[in-house]
Amino acid sequence: MLLARRSVLALGLGLAAGARAAAPSVPDAPLWHRDGRQVRLRSDVWRDRIALVNFVYTSCSSFCGVQSAMLAELQSRLGERMGREVVLISLSIDPLTDDPPRMQSFARPFEPGPHWWWLTGEPRTMFKTLEALGADRGDPRDHAPLWLAGTSQSPRRLVGLPSLKQLETALGTPPSSPR
Q1: Contact at 8 Å (CB) between 96 and 126?
Q2: Rg (CA), the chain
Q3: How confident is the model at residue 135 (pLDDT cuts 50, 70, 90)?
Q4: pLDDT the model gives residue 23
Q5: Burial class, 17, CB count within 10 angstroms (exposed 0-12 / middle 13-18 / buried 19+)
Q6: Could you identify which of 34, 104, 105, 155 might form a hypothetical disulfide with 148, taking C-beta atoms 3.0 to 4.6 angstroms apart as the criterion?
């Protein structure tokens, strides 16, 4: 019930345009990639590139799959810019459940390439990371569709389900034509 109210409220706030708040500080937290490698969020993954970050959990039955499908399409549209200029990052908001194998299983249908990072971590580290990024640390079932877009020095918050064109614009990417 709370999720439904939050989702309706969020969608009613004009989320297609994206709600923006102060830029969060991106920590250099040690996290686990879906393949089991340990990486650091800022120095290994984000680096000096533009990132689009979404927040997911593997047992989500609401919009995590929709967001992930949007990122899959965006990955295709970005083409050669992936990895060189832009990375996609999906961060678990449920590190108590989401280990690398679960992240790998959840990610598989979206066919993530090497520059789409699916990350989880030790719960305490992950919760501190989520808090630093401004993500809700409450019950994962009640989370809002949140995105971060930009460099690690100045990511912008976007809330809701913007269009692919709006996500491309948030990345500073000229919108591409649909395939």
Answers
A1: no
A2: 15
A3: confident
A4: 58
A5: exposed
A6: 155
Strand partners, 146: 159
Q: What is the mean pLDDT of the chain?
A: 84
Give the per-residue pLDDT at 22: 54
Is the Cβ–Cβ distance between 23 and 154 less than 8 Å? yes
Q: What single string gives the DSSP state of each residue in 51-116?
A: EEEEEE-TT--SSHHHHHHHHHHHHHHHGGGBTTTEEEEEEES-TTT--HHHHHHHHGGG---TTE
- Only one residue has tokens 């409450």, namely 138
**Length of the chain, please?**
179
Tell me the per-residue pLDDT of 26-42, one tens digit each, with 9 for 90 and over.
999 999 999 999 999 99
Identify the helix (H) or strand (E) that includes residue 39: strand 38-40
CA torsion sign for 39, 67, 177, 13 is: negative
Domains and CATH numbers, the chain: 2-170 (3.40.30.10)
| Reported pTM | 0.83
